[in-house]
Design a protein that fits this description.
A hairpin with a 3-residue loop joins strand 3 (65-73) and strand 4. Helix 4 (131-140) packs antiparallel against helix 5. The chain has a single domain (4-16, 23-152), classed as Beta Polymerase, domain 2 (2-Layer Sandwich). The protein has five helices and seven strands; from the N terminus they run αβαβαβββββαα. With 159 residues, it is of the alpha+beta class. The protein has helices at residues 4-17, 29-35, 51-60, 131-140, 144-156; strands at 25-28, 45-49, 65-73, 77-86, 89-99, 116-121, 124-129.
């Protein structure tokens, strides 16, 4: 279930980012899963974009900035990462994420447009990363339990 605070933040993000021509972004992670009916409660909101899109989101959310968008890396992920607070909810933005593959180094950032679906409900219209892509990403992040949960949810939906 998506908490009311997250719904408020998503409405604000939609208002701020939706009308920006050429900005390619999508909701990803636990908030996207809960929005589509998976049984979990997110702590934050995650957005994915290309590098220039993440920087543009950073400029649009500059008054809510906790950490400016800049190159970032962890054991399995590298991206252009920033953190913001919108309507009291932490929002993480990743631009051009790349993942450590299982045998052949880092993956190239995936082109987002073919991986984005549209979620609509209650007057809210948001771009969301496809669950099939999410399952792959969670495997690449070595978060197999979450990948299994996504896969099971996809199978119950016939996808």
């Amino acid at each position: 279930m998506l908490p009311d605070a997250h719904l408020r933040a998503l409405r604000e993000l939609s208002r701020l980012l939706g009308p920006c021509g050429g900005l390619v972004w999508a909701l990803t992670g636990s908030a996207a899963f809960a929005l589509r009916g998976m049984d979990l409660t997110p702590r934050d909101i995650d957005l994915v974009a290309d590098r220039s899109g993440a920087c543009r989101v950073g400029r649009l959310l500059k008054d809510a900035c906790l950490r400016p968008v800049s190159p970032s890396w962890s054991r399995y992920v590298r991206s252009h990462f920033g953190q913001f607070e919108v309507a009291g909810v932490k929002v993480d933005v990743m631009g051009d994420p790349s993942y450590l593959g299982f045998s052949d180094g880092w993956t190239a950032p995936a082109p987002l447009p073919p991986l984005i679906e549209t979620y609509e409900s209650g007057g809210l219209r948001l771009p969301v990363l496809s669950l099939a892509r999410e399952e792959i990403v969670y495997r690449l992040m070595r978060r197999d339990a979450r990948a299994e949960q996504i896969g099971a949810f996809l199978r119950t939906r016939g996808g």
